Amino acid sequence: MAKNTKAEINRKRWGDILKKYGLTKEQWWAIYEEQDKKCFICRRRLKIGGKSTRLSVHTDHCHTTGKVRGLLCRRCNMDIVPRFEKNLEAALNLHIYLTREKHYGLTPGTRRLDDNNNSNTK
Fold first, then answer.
1. Where are the alpha helices (DSSP H) in the chain?
2. 18-46 residues labelled b (16+ CB within 10 A) or e (exposed)
3. In the structure, what pLDDT confidence band is assigned to residue 104 with cuts at 50, 70 and 90?
4. How far apart are CA 34 and CA 76, in angstroms?
5. How far apart are CA 5 and CA 22, in angstroms?
6. Model confidence over 51-61: pLDDT tens digits?
């Protein structure tokens, strides 16, 4: 069995993207450039080609409409999006939770209560 050449693999890849997502090679690269070559969610540099890693580029799409939303790294596409795409309220709550001022317990690295806790210790 003959091994596929790089050109054949490349042609198949772009053919698959056109068939699955309706994007031409030029349209896909335009999205890549528009996103500054980074995952839309975590903003890490996307890896193209070679061995699959957590930063390998994925073309993310809505499974209901089939429309492409953008390019993500494998980790965001496989872990983050599936957790929140059906529950956007949870995604908003996560943002609020991580950015809020209120904290509980001791300030890390100290033995004193966080200033935010003084009113909550009764």
1. 6-21, 25-34, 74-75, 81-84, 88-99
2. eeebebeeeebeeebeebeebbbbeeeeb
3. confident
4. 18
5. 24
6. 777 779 999 99
Question: Total domain count for the chain?
Answer: 1
Does residue 108 lie in a domain region?
Answer: no
117 falls within a domain: no
- Residue 71 and residue 97: Cα distance in Å, rounded? 26
Does 112 reside within a domain?
A: no
| Angstrom distance (rounded) from CA 28 to CA 50 | 18
The domain of 88 spans 6-100
At 122, is the pLDDT very low, low, confident or very high (cuts 50, 70, 90)?
very low
105 located within any domain: no
CATH number at residue 43: 3.40.1800.10
Indicate whether 20 pLDDT > 70.
yes
